[in-house]
Amino acid sequence: MASQNLLFSTDLISPEVQKALPPGYKLRPLSSDDYEHGFLKVLSVLTVIGDISKAQFLERYNYLKKHNHEYFTIVITDPSDTIIGAGTIFVERKFIHNTGLVGHIEDIAVDKNQQGKKLGLRVIQALKYIGAKTGCYKVILDCSEEVRDLEIQPGKYDKLFHNVPFYEKCGFTRKEVEMAWYTDETAQAKL
């Protein structure tokens, strides 16, 4: 894969995590070609994705690429170059902690047929590595504490299980409580 198509430099990819993957699997930054390699499909294990066109994908990708000092999306591919895992860390610039940086982990996803191979752990390890290499004083994430129904397609539900124990195995500890306020369902991105 041509490096100019990658979201950020491969210098931020952990060699240790790459070595820990099953044979033939690869860890790399998101590519502008990944619309065709299953990136959106793997994210669908998390929530409804929507009907995203290739043009929309590339518009978002190009925004992230322009801000690739703040947004780091990684993927894991299987031997056929299909994306089977993904995650993102974005870097927030703070005034506190001497204008420190905080890494926020989001959208950890592993294809349901690939779960049980420690790929989620590898995604988290790779994102923590990026957080450390970019100078974050901490890396945080939000996760579910309860079992709930997840709408995977309009009208189709699956169970989403709490994932606190998984993130504790990844080295995270409970710290605070997340609060959320959602705008109405029809809200569209405007930025």
TrEMBL record:
It comes from the Eukaryota. It catalyses: D-glucosamine 6-phosphate + acetyl-CoA = N-acetyl-D-glucosamine 6-phosphate + CoA + H(+). It is a peripheral membrane protein. GO terms for molecular function: glucosamine 6-phosphate N-acetyltransferase activity. One of its GO terms (cellular component) is endoplasmic reticulum membrane. Its EC number is 2.3.1.4. It is an enzyme of class 2 (transferase). Pfam families: Acetyltransf_1. Residues 25-191 form the N-acetyltransferase domain. GO terms for biological process: UDP-N-acetylglucosamine biosynthetic process. Pathway: Nucleotide-sugar biosynthesis; UDP-N-acetyl-alpha-D-glucosamine biosynthesis; N-acetyl-alpha-D-glucosamine 1-phosphate from alpha-D-glucosamine 6-phosphate (route I): step 1/2. SUPFAM superfamilies: Acyl-CoA N-acyltransferases (Nat) (SSF55729). It is found in: Endomembrane system; Endoplasmic reticulum membrane. Keywords: Acyltransferase, Endoplasmic reticulum, Membrane, Transferase. Gene3D superfamilies: 3.40.630.30. Belongs to the acetyltransferase family. GNA1 subfamily. Homodimer. PANTHER family: GLUCOSAMINE 6-PHOSPHATE N-ACETYLTRANSFERASE. This is Glucosamine 6-phosphate N-acetyltransferase.
